[in-house]
Amino acid sequence: MTRYGLAIDISRCIGCYACVIACKSENSTRPGVSWIRVEQEEQGEYPNVSRSYWPVMCVECGEMPCAQVCPNGAIHKGDGGIVFVDHDKCDCGTKLCVDACPFGAMATNEGNRSYFADYVTPYEKEALAAHREGTVEKCMLCYHRIRSGDIPACVRACPAQAMVFGDLDDRDSPVTRLIARGTKPLGTHAAVDPAVFYL
Amino acid sequence: MMFGTERIPSYCIHCSALCGVIAHVQDGYLIKIEGDPESLNNAGTLCPKALAAKQEIYHPDRLKYPMKRTRPKGEADPGWVRITWDEALDTIVTKMVHFKERYGAESFFFQKGSTSGSSGVEWYGFYNRLANLYGSPNFGGTGHICCYSHSCPGLPLHLGTKGQSPYIDYEKTSLILLVGYNILHTKAPVARRILDAQRRGAKLIVVDPILSPTAAKADIWLAPRPGTDLALFLAMHHVIIDERLYEADFVEQWTNAPFLVRDDNGLFLRDESNRYLVWDLENQRVQPADPWFPAGVRPALSGAHSVNGVLCRPAWQLFCDLVETCTPEWAQEITWVPADKIREVARLFATSKPAGNDWYNGLHKSSNAYYTAVAMTLLSVVTGNWDVPGGLTYEPKSRFNEIKGTAFLPKDWIEKSLIAAAGYKVRAYNGENVGPMNLIANAVLSGKPYPIKGILSLASGFGTSNPNSRRIMEALQKLEFLAMGDIWKTPAMEMADIILPCSTPWESEFVNYNAPYLMYRRPIVEPQHESWPDLKIVFELARRMGYAEQFWDGDTKKAFDYMLEPFKVTLAELADSPRGIRYTPPEPVFRKYAVSDERSSKPKGVATPTGKLEVYSEKLKTLDYNPLPAWIEPTPGPVSTPDLVRDFPLILASGFKPMHWIHGQMRAVPWLRECEKEPSVWINRRTAAEMGIKDGDQVVVETPKPDGSMQGRLRLKAHPTESVHPRVIYIPYGWWQGCAPLGLMDRGNLDGSTNVNYLYDDSVTDPLSGTISIVSYPCRVRKE
Q1: How far is B35 from B21, CA to CA, in rounded Å?
Q2: Distance, in angstroms, between B668 CA and closest chain A CA?
Q3: Which of A13, B209, B296, B445 has its CA 20 to 30 A from that of A33?
Q4: How far apart, in whole angstroms, are the C-alpha atoms of residue B628 and residue A92?
Q5: How confident is the model at residue B617 (pLDDT cuts 50, 70, 90)?
């Protein structure tokens, strides 16, 4: 079996948003929707203060609290352990899944908006059309790229090379070996069998 | 969707880092940009600015066609009317000819912004050539608010590196000391190298009053009171000398430390052949050094020696005398950095071999900026870390043919420059034809030393990037003629007579080396609307001015061929290979000072006045400056201007910028703007609590003029944080532009704006570098 996952080295993340913009560029998400965000955490008192940055996205978890609350059964686990939303079924209007996700990783397309109303290129128009109004979206680890042998856009772009992508079921993959050295919990929500780990 | 997509290898020129990219283009439309995995520079990674290229190129609010004003300056509506490029360029040329005939070439100022933005890092050499052919000694830059001591021109008097930007050899270093330099964000491809160095055990020490993103990654963060880094470095020298941690052999051989300085006039003692002299401890007599002293001579580094009745001391003794009283405890009082922390860092820096220190913009904002940079780089020199593997090093000049055309300038140009007229003697000595915008404003408003009548400005947001924005606008209003080219409509354009729409870097062409490829960078997409690349504007102006012959018959392709000559490659050959042609540069040479000169068989030394690295600058002495980097309080500031501090008790520091912005640019790009919608003022959490200020509260920040009257007032959201000292606030710079797609409107640069430069007076400068002193500016904050 294959389970795709990420190891994100917090000691390397510099909070530059390259992952956020790479995701925007790759997936053409609508205004206000981002499948990855960067959270900052400041600790201590000046001058003994530290700041760390945490890229947060869907952790493709095994528990899937989102799927558990979906009234339409629109959320399912697919190839490589990636959690997919079936947009044909996603029309409940309650967005229970958005609240159920402990990582705030699900976003709803509110309104049929694009960034530049009159100036989208034909290709941007086409890309935006894939994002349907009212449905819930999330990161799928750039499944379309993985399928063609590439790595997720955020991982590629990261100037700090803080993210490592790979198969968690492959004991010899770099990502598995990194995770084996120990991970940090993201907030208090570690017990969901995640595929995204923080080092 | 990706079938039929063309993948164009190119590189980004939003900043000088030049990251390799692959542009995915379909039917002439840019689909997306990715990092080029083959690029040795960025290895497939890419920063937000380049990743957002699509939204920059196709942004609806770009300038689209040339325009002229039809209503007088000062009226609310300039009455912009669309004109042709012919009319715009002919108008500019007519004015240029007129001003030169009537008032002299010096009356026309060629302003450029930072080398970042609309690919200025590449075309500015040609722009400089245009200014030089015209004969104006006033060619604008940003050194006075950016990088004076780093590369503009650097520290030629001390290190001999004119215009050569030093950098740390991160691959081999054991310790990295960064000062006022948010390099993890501002030079994205360097980020992973620094993090890799840390991973293999190198220490990262960051000096910054604010916990910048780079400081947040440091093993040790030193947060001096803004503007007092000089005291910190002097105390580090104190520790290094006191504990004999310096490299005595290096100091003796490669610096002018042993040269005898006369007590009576502070100049070097010379013999009848005008050779420098050292005191030979072996034979207890003077020995000539030209600048190398004979083998067998053991030069004194300390003491006082009488030579023919003249009392002299080795320069090193004077340097030691200078730092003797600069104890860590002394520095703690001034800098707020604990003395034991200063000792720890001094010892670490001197004993971790090799160590590298680098600095940038943060050092160029105070009235003691020049000496701060000197003291900092001398740390590298006295510990023997200068130009060694793993230390602070530099590369010789560009391998491309030079195109600036400085030789076209009239011989006496430097005397005619505003730099020389304003008394910046080091700058004049270094032969810099850069006219800082504050000097231009002085000349426009006062008519002295001569009037400035016209300005052509390309890629420069001088209405927001220069301190004292109101005075800049007053000067522009008085100015007879202003033509401005840019991608966006900037606040200064309110005073322009002609506006030119410039292309983004992605729509322009150039040749460059982007390891491992020598590349012809063709436009990724055609220029949008009626925009022109800046390079085309420069060439077309040159042709109309009658300089076609000196501008390769107005043909950029021929100019590129000329640039490429040293590589023995033609543009046609390069263009045939879209991937570029592989080129392996020679291995970097370290210890360049020790390389033998072919003719004399002596070491080449460095390009300083003495030929050696200079711990004591006689040239500064002859220019009436202190030859040594003695402590100076920054002005204004809590110590130097106590009257201001009574009413304005906090210190305003406008420090680092994040990776997603470059100076005042890019705010209109919605993807980027979603990351940071508005600027906020960072204020210490405890200070904020005392004032009842909570996160997100609207606050008013006010600053004084030197006489205590009000300079400026900004309304900003508060961000209480422990990342600043309780007496320091931080406001990011470069904020003025709106982002209409997100419903955010332009804020202008004066009343009601978010432009931090509105808060500064610009009358106090560093007398050596001309740097405008703003880093420790008094201010006060209150809840709205």
Answers
A1: 4
A2: 11
A3: A13
A4: 74
A5: very high
Those residues with Cβ within 8 angstroms of residue A75's Cβ, 6 or more apart along the chain or in another chain: A64, A66, A67, A83, A84, A85, A86, A97
Q: Is the pLDDT of residue B2 over 50?
A: no
Q: What is the phi/psi pair of residue B715, to 5°? A: -110, 125
Residues B545 and B521 reside in one and the same domain: yes
Please report the sign of the dihedral spanned by the C-alpha atoms of residue B665, residue B671, residue B674, residue B676.
negative
| Cβ-proximal residues to B430 (8 Å cutoff; 6+ apart), any chain | B153, B156, B157, B162
ω into residue B741 within 30 of 0, thus cis?
no
| B683/chain A closest Cα distance in angstroms | 11
Query: Is residue B600 a part of any domain in this protein?
Result: no
Q: Could you give the C-alpha distances from B664 to B114, B188, B284, B490, B576, in angstroms and in order?
A: 10, 18, 61, 10, 37
Pairing between strand B517-521 and B581-582? antiparallel
What pLDDT is attached to residue B433? 67
Spell out the domains of chain A, with CATH numbers in brackets: 4-198 (3.30.70.20)
A contacts of B26 (beta carbons < 8 Å): 123
Contacts of A22 in chain B (CB under 8 A): 46, 51
CA atoms within 13 A on the CB side of B54: 28
Tokens of B443: 């000349």
CA distances from B590 to B151, B259, B355 (A): 19, 25, 14
Give how far Cα A22 sits from Cα of B52, B514, B652, Å. Answer: 8, 22, 34
Residue B422 lies in a domain: no
Closest A-chain CA to B186:
A16
Joined together, the tokens standing for residue B761 give 């007076």
Between B538 and B119, the higher pLDDT residue: B538
Strand, coil or helix: B26? strand
Judgement on whether residues B468 and B552 belong to the same structural domain of the protein: yes
- The reported pLDDT for the residue numbered B1 is 43
Q: Which of A130-139, B84-93, B649-658 has the highest mean pLDDT?
A: B84-93
Q: Which two tokens mark B572?
A: 């046609």
Query: A106 to each of A57, A75, A76, A101, B424, how far by Cα in Å?
Result: 8, 11, 14, 7, 59
In the block, tokens 């080129």 appear at B583
Number of domains comprising chain B:
4
Check whether residue B196 and residue B306 sit in a common domain.
Answer: yes
According to the 3-state scheme, what is the secondary structure of B254-281? HECCCCEEECCCCCECECCCCCEEEEEC
A119–chain B nearest CA distance, Å: 6
